[in-house]
From TrEMBL:
Pfam families: XG_FTase
Localization in the cell: Golgi apparatus, Golgi stack membrane
Cited Gene3D superfamilies: 3.40.50.11340
Family in the record: Belongs to the glycosyltransferase 37 family.
Organism from which the protein derives: Iris pallida (Sweet iris)
Keyword set includes Glycoprotein: yes
The keyword Manganese appears for this protein: no
Name recorded for this polypeptide: Fucosyltransferase
Length: 475
């Protein structure tokens, strides 16, 4: 494969500091060992403990994975509804739910929870999970077999009697018989009893349940860092706490060959030759269809003020001399095409004050969110990945799409302040405190004192997010 001279380096560490295991068949998932050729080497190495823990997890998954003898044995218990305490393997089953950015963040959270609790992570394939991601674990599968008895798996909801919240309310956890499975409702609309998941005593009960079924649309990792039982291990795994998603994400999420084709072709055609790449992720939650003037003003004022884009010279007639200027490629992702057109025109109609050449590209403009359409999400995944290859990133408030790009890329983005009343905010953007995603719906509960508390003020490494005052993030 041809890659840009800036990033082609024979000594590139294709295993990402030991994050990835050796031994995968290269052709089945081209992206796995090639990501290092497209990405700058991350300054953040995974800790030796994390590397060791991942190898141990892979062995467990192989032993307990789908259709192994140990897996089949737990099926009997699911059919009976009760656990008899004899199973060697326990599981967390992730339900495919919500937009792609949300899914990536919850799956990373579920995997970290699996590491902390010695569970095996299995994935409901939903409509497209198998088309988007390669198998991350060597010689086994993370996809739930289609003959799984709790069917359809996505029928679980906050109303299910097996939900942990309802079990607590109905005093079922004091029952002598241990259930074979418990449903964890950790979605944005969860209730106070569901939130007890984040309390140590409740974890002691859940530990004994062989199957946990999880539905979430949130990056709940920050609150795992507040459970005393897991504190020490988390510190061992992530001595630099704000790299949790950076490492877990690059370990788990390898684009399939079809998605990799979208990424690699786009990169080579439009981005590889530029001296620098600026990613701009535009997600507008306003009703109505953009482009909106105030959003464009905000993006430009942020990019100019932070020196991410050069000023234009209104009266100059500067013409670049061929082959001598610095070039910057601007990769815009947005559901609508208007923003990138305006930026492209601006740099066509006027010279830049510093002589830099600016080219503006936008891979797709799908119009609106179409979560169930297959090629739509392949493009969405390719775009998140391409953004993560940028040298600098501007992202939208509240958007998990942007969080994924920032985290995979190991970048601290400039976050566009959420506009109110259709006016451009001042200041237009602020620098992210860390590369971590924000947990949008955290619990505010002190498990010991049994009363409400500000969970963003308990420890220095879990704080409120830049873009959502009630959210929590690792720094
Ligand atoms: P969030 O809603 O911004 O937190 O991000 P999600 O990824 O969870 O959900 C938004 C969904 O809308 C994505 O999964 C895509 O399907 C679609 N979408 C939003 N913005 C873009 C974009 O810039 N490009 C593409 N291709 N799809 C987008």
């Amino acid at each position: 494969e041809q890659v840009s001279s800036a990033s082609s380096d024979a000594a590139k560490d294709t295993l990402l500091g030991g994050l990835l295991p050796v031994g995968f068949d290269d052709k089945s998932c081209l992206s796995r060992y090639r990501s290092a050729l497209y990405r700058k080497t991350s300054p953040h190495l995974p800790s030796p403990n994390l590397v060791k823990r991942l190898r141990k997890y892979e062995a467990l998954h192989k032993r307990c994975g789908p259709n192994t003898e140990l897996y089949n044995r737990t099926m009997q218990q699911i059919k009976s509804g009760h656990a008899d305490g004899t199973t060697e393997c326990s599981y967390i089953l992730w339900i495919s739910y919500s937009g792609l950015g949300n899914r990536i963040l919850t799956l990373a959270s579920a995997f970290l929870y699996a590491l902390l609790t010695d569970r095996v992570l299995l994935v409901d394939r939903g409509s497209d999970m198998g088309d988007l991601f390669c198998e991350p674990f060597l010689e086994t599968s993370w996809l739930l077999p289609s003959d799984f008895p709790l069917n359809p798996i996505n029928a679980f909801s906050e109303k299910s009697p097996e939900s942990y919240g309802n079990m607590v309310k109905n005093a079922l956890i004091r029952d002598k018989l241990l259930p074979s499975h418990v449903y964890l409702h950790l979605a944005h609309d969860y209730g106070d009893s569901d939130k007890l998941f984040f309390c140590e005593d409740d974890q002691l009960f859940l530990e004994k349940v062989p199957w946990l079924v999880l539905r979430s649309d949130n990056y709940f990792v920050p609150s795992l860092f507040l459970i005393p039982k897991y504190e020490e291990e988390l510190h061992q795994l992530f001595p630099q706490r704000d790299t949790a998603f950076h490492h877990l994400g690059r370990y788990l999420f390898q684009p399939t060959n079809s998605v990799w084709g979208l990424i690699a072709r786009y990169h080579q055609a439009y981005l590889a030759r530029a001296d620098k790449i600026l990613g701009i992720q535009i997600r507008v939650f306003d009703t109505g269809t953009g482009p909106f003037e105030h959003v464009l003003d905000q993006i430009l004022s942020c990019s100019l003020r932070e020196n991410l884009l050069p000023e234009i010279s209104k009266n100059g007639a500067y013409v670049p001399r061929a082959g001598t200027t610095r070039s910057k490629a601007v990769l815009v992702t947005s559901l609508s095409s208007g923003y990138s057109e305006e930026i492209r025109n601006m740099y066509w109609e006027h010279p830049t004050a510093n002589g830099e050449t600016i080219s503006v590209y936008q891979p797709s403009h799908e119009g609106y969110q179409q979560t169930e359409k297959q090629t739509h999400n392949m493009k969405a995944w390719a775009e998140m990945y391409l953004l993560s290859l940028s040298d600098a990133l501007v992202t939208s408030s509240w958007s998990t799409f942007g969080y994924v790009a920032q985290g995979l890329g190991g970048l601290r983005s400039w976050i566009l302040v959420k506009p109110e009343n259709r006016t451009a905010p001042d200041p237009p953007c602020g620098r992210a405190l860390s590369m971590e995603p924000c947990f949008h719906a955290p619990p505010f509960y002190d498990c010991k004192a049994k009363k409400g508390t500000d969970t963003g003020a308990l420890v220095p490494h879990v704080v409120h997010c830049e873009d959502m005052s009630w959210g929590l993030k690792l720094v």
